[in-house]
Amino acid sequence: MDIEITSWKDLQEHLFRDSWDPSIQRHRSPYIYRGNNIKDVDLTTSLQRLGGPYEKLEKHLLRNFKKYAHLDKSEDQSTWNWLALAQHHGLPTRLLDWTYSPYIALHFATNELEMYEQDGMIWALNYVGMNRFLPAHFKEVIEREESNVFTADMLNEVSENFDQLDPGGSNPFLLFLEPPSLDYRIINQFALFSLMSNAQSTLGSWLNGHPDLWFRIHIPAKLKWEIRDKLDQANITERVLFPGLQGLSMWLKRQYSSKQSQT
Hints:
- The chain is an alpha+beta fold and 263 residues long.
- It has one domain.
- The protein is built from 13 helices and 9 strands.
- The chain has helices spanning 8-15, 54-68, 79-88, 102-110, 127-130, 136-144, 152-158, 162-165, 184-188, 203-208, 224-233, 238-241, 245-255, and strands at residues 2-4, 20-21, 26-27, 31-36, 95-99, 120-126, 174-177, 191-196, 214-219.
- Strands 1-9-6-4 form a 4-stranded mixed sheet.
- A hairpin with a 4-residue loop joins strand 2 and strand 3.
- Helix 6 packs antiparallel against helix 7.
- The protein is globular.
């Protein structure tokens, strides 16, 4: 479902929709979020964007990443920890980045000033509801742990590598992987990954078969400055989300950029 908003107030209503959980009498959203500066962006992975026989390259990419990674990275880590580490450092993988925070997703829909003449997009997935489509042995693990997402250790119980994840490949499924706390960037961005059971399956195609479990919010270009200023006031900035001198510089550059120079 696509949602058109007209104001900041309207945006808040949709970002936090369906968050009331009557079973615990608390507001606990079943959604995760992903923000894009432009609306016409699909959900293909960085691995798929390589083109060519990318599904045959996945193992080679990860094997060589492990071979040349820093010496302080343990070879005893599971495939899934290595995959999360590789994604975090820019290697093309089948993972897609998401966040539990709607405001962090909003940051990534408004952080590029040169895109302010274009509408942005927020994707929201009901990750809790999507778990009912997991194969039984995967579902058993997260139900036993009373979790809605997998850690690397949990996923390793049912699949130690890509080949074991979905041997038949005839009925692709989606799961969510919470990475280890590799650094403060992962922690501060409240991050997790989506993971399709085979490299060739696209998340967009899978979602088309489950329209009741997701929605998209179009962010009009005319609202981007207001959204950006309010996020900055709430301290949702590069300085926080990318700890270190690079994030500080990114924040200061945007903070002191003239609005007129972007129009």
